[in-house]
Design brief:
single chain; alpha/beta; Rossmann fold; 4 domains; 7-stranded mixed sheet; 19 strands
């Protein structure tokens, strides 16, 4: 502000008082600007202009497509239908567990049979049905079929049991529950407490004695159901698609609403921001009940026609073998998954794959370089976001041309030139209490480059960009703020004292135990075992 006022003053004095020609006035202003520190802005401009233009074009492209979908009331099933028309016989999903391949036509028919069957059973647009099963092709077909009918799917975390599981089913007000046969024991534990009106369906291997007495076997019922496209429900781009639940580490699980527009924007920003290609093959070993696996991964299949390989659970020992077998070009990761891969002994398979991109979040800076160099992955596509919001996604440097220098550990960028275009800011917080740190004027204090990251990501929402709850917008006028915790690892808020103590037996006074893989049982964790774990000689 002071520099701008000074430049205006020099301009007026030079032209009106000294009556200098415009050329001399221009040079005077330039020298004053550079001498007052303006050279820093010039340097920033030269270094970031290409990156900012690329990021801006991605945002404009996605925003234009979002507006078109809003105007035409498109939904995820409608967008998927256009994908099916483009290449019906291309492989859409591959389930590694049984080597089952589904084409886009087969996925479309399966999901339509789900919609027609549920409609015959009395479910209608606006109802809720829960899905509680491990990863496989049917998981995608189930929630997609529900969406075709306008039924909202509640995607239940498969790690939940008893009270937490019952809480999710009760609060979702689901009229039907589809569970995998592998989850039958968990359902039996809470069956007596379930609403008697809740209809139960089991998908997978059928053992009548292992499921509640009222359960029906879904698979043969779907085979007999009509496979034609059901009538289109009265749903728009901002209506609810499904619910994703938290893990319940800080209390009972909470539902995050995902609307159709939210699903599209998450998948599209990643697709265009990291320059994915329609012929890419994605290796998705992340849980499909969460946004990373189901939106960032599966979304590339449904919306952009990419083939996605689904694995039931992550396996460090089989990871690269799967990538070779299915010719994967993109792999997904989250949290410590990359560290688990690095802890594996070197193998020939890790040098024989065709993977060109690792996509995800939570890759620690300390292993970033080792991960990309050892496994020969040219591009690490790290991003940062949250299931509930999408306002703070930004493409990272590796998404730019290969000549552009990437920053190890970066999870995004904010323009230094046109910061108002994408109004986000990292502000300082107290690392112990996570309270915002404010200056004497009550305003939050921005983080400076190079400082340790004890911060929150703050974004500004405008009324003209509002969307329904879960869509990343607001319904109140003026400006609103939302916050994302910027913590290392899995981005889960942790209790401060426990985080500081870790599992060091020299600090923790309570008895500690760990699962000894060789002995197959829990054994006491002493200082010697702790040292072996820290050195990577023993794995948890």
């Amino acid at each position: 502000m002071l520099l701008g006022a000074s430049l205006v003053g020099v301009l007026l004095f030079s032209k009106l008082v000294l009556k200098l020609p415009w050329t001399q006035v221009g040079f005077s202003l330039l020298f004053l600007y550079l001498g007052s520190g303006g050279w820093r802005f010039i340097r920033v401009f030269i270094k970031t202009i290409r990156r900012d233009i690329f990021g801006g074009l991605v945002l404009l492209k996605v925003k234009a497509k979002v507006r078109q979908c809003l105007r035409e009331r498109r939904t995820v099933p409608i967008l998927f239908a256009s994908t099916v028309r483009r290449h019906p016989d291309k492989t859409a999903l591959i389930f590694e567990g049984t080597d089952t391949h589904w084409t886009f036509r087969q996925l479309d028919e399966y999901s339509s049979s789900v919609a027609n069957f549920l409609q015959a059973r009395g479910l209608a647009s606006g109802d809720v049905a829960a899905i509680f099963m491990e990863n496989r092709n049917e998981f995608v077909g189930l929630w997609l079929g529900m969406a075709k009918l306008g039924v909202e799917a509640a995607l239940i975390n498969t790690n939940l049991r008893r009270d937490a599981l019952l809480h999710c089913l009760t609060t979702s007000r689901a009229r039907a529950l589809v569970f995998g046969s592998e989850m039958a024991s968990a359902i039996c534990e809470i069956h007596a407490s379930l609403d008697p009106s809740l209809t139960l369906f089991c998908s997978g291997s059928w053992e009548p004695n292992a499921v509640p007495t009222s359960t029906e076997h879904l698979d043969p019922l779907l085979k007999d159901a009509p496979k034609h496209l059901p009538s289109c429900p009265d749903k728009g781009f901002t209506d609810k698609l499904f619910y994703i639940y938290t893990s319940g580490t800080t209390g009972l699980p909470k539902a995050a609403i995902v609307v159709h527009s939210r699903y599209y924007r998450m998948a599209a920003l990643v697709y265009y921001g990291f320059r994915m290609r329609p012929n890419d093959i994605v290796y998705d070993c992340l849980p499909l009940y969460h946004s990373a696996g189901n939106i960032v991964g599966i979304g590339q299949c449904l919306l952009h026609g990419m083939t996605v390989v689904i694995r039931k659970k992550f396996s460090a020992s089989r990871f690269w073998d799967d990538c070779i077998k299915y010719k994967c070009t993109i792999v997904q990761y989250i949290g410590e998954l990359c560290r688990y891969l690095l802890n594996q002994p070197p193998r020939e398979a890790e040098n024989q794959h065709q993977v060109r991109m690792a996509l995800g979040n939570g890759l620690r800076q300390s292993i970033w370089t080792n991960f990309s160099s050892r496994f020969h992955i040219p591009q690490v596509a790290e991003f940062y976001g949250a299931t509930e919001y999408c306002g703070c996604w930004s493409p990272t440097s590796p998404s730019l041309p290969k000549s552009w220098p990437s920053q190890v550990g970066a999870c995004g960028f904010n323009s230094r030139i046109l910061s108002f275009v994408y109004p986000i800011r990292l502000v300082r917080v107290n690392e112990d209490t996570m309270e915002l740190i404010r200056g004497p004027d009550g305003v939050c204090i921005p983080c400076q480059p190079g400082l340790p990251l004890g911060s929150q990501l703050l974004g500004r929402l405008r009324q003209e960009n509002r969307l329904n709850p879960g869509g990343g917008g607001c319904s109140e006028p003026r400006l609103h703020h939302f916050f994302f915790p910027a913590l290392p690892g899995t981005y889960k808020l942790q209790k401060t004292e426990l985080r500081k103590e870790g599992f060091d037996p020299a600090i923790v006074k309570d008895p500690l135990f760990y699962l000894d893989a060789q002995k197959g049982r829990y054994v006491p964790l002493d200082q010697e075992a702790y040292s072996r774990i820290q050195a990577g000689e023993e794995k948890l």
